[in-house]
Design brief:
Structural class: alpha+beta
CATH class: Mainly Alpha
Order of helices and strands: EEEHHHHHHHE
Helix content: 55-70%
CATH topology: Fumarate Reductase Cytochrome B subunit
Number of strands: 4
Strand order of the largest sheet: 1-2-3-4
Radius of gyration: 18 Å
Shape: elongated
Largest sheet: 4 strands, antiparallel
Length: 190
């Protein structure tokens, strides 16, 4: 049986010691973005129509996520996970010393990663769209910028996955499962 707990004016559904943290919009955004970006990356040099369609889907998802960052549930909002550079640096330092605290929503590094990925994905899709315009069709430097940005996104994805694995191990919590079912265990959190 579910119990409703009021926290900072936000309702969280509690069941067996777990809290609902990630709403369905955040989870669908995450997995659709993984799928669309993967398709765009795989088809980059081969299937232009599929590549462009996947790119437009990525652009639409980024736009929706930015909107949801202002209108969404507690842990989906930018106000919940945008930290100062000092907080991010301190968190990363604590992570290196294996004493970083656990956060119920995004930790400072995770929040910074969300922002970096959204900006980079926006730049990747904007440069890709430019390549389809009459003014920039076939212009080499635009294609090179697009490819460089996409490679940077891949680097960020690598860091993101490494951070998820590290946090899952250190805090003994399956963060991938939590991005599927939306739930995280209760505990000493922020």
């Amino acid at each position: 049986m579910a119990v409703i707990e009021k926290k900072a004016g936000v309702s969280c559904t509690e069941e067996r010691g777990d809290l609902k943290v990630w709403d369905i919009a955040v989870r669908l955004f995450h997995w659709f973005l993984v799928f669309a970006f993967t398709i765009a990356w795989i088809t980059g040099d081969e299937w232009d129509r599929v590549h462009e369609a996947a790119g437009y889907i990525v652009a639409g998802l980024v736009g929706l996520r930015i909107l949801w960052g202002f209108l969404g549930s507690r842990h989906a909002r930018f106000a919940d996970f945008v930290y100062s550079p000092k907080s991010i640096f301190n968190y990363l330092r604590e992570t290196l010393h294996h004493n970083a605290k656990r956060y119920l929503g995004h930790n400072p590094a995770g929040g910074a990663m969300v922002i970096a990925l959204l900006i980079s994905l926006f730049a990747a899709t904007a440069s890709g769209i430019l390549m389809t315009t009459d003014a920039f069709w076939g212009v080499e430097w635009v294609e090179e910028i697009h490819e460089a940005i996409v490679n940077f996104v891949l680097f960020l994805v690598f860091l993101h996955v490494a951070g998820v694995i590290h946090s899952s191990f250190v805090h003994r919590e399956n963060l991938v499962r939590s991005m599927i079912n939306g739930r995280k265990r209760r505990g000493s959190d922020q």
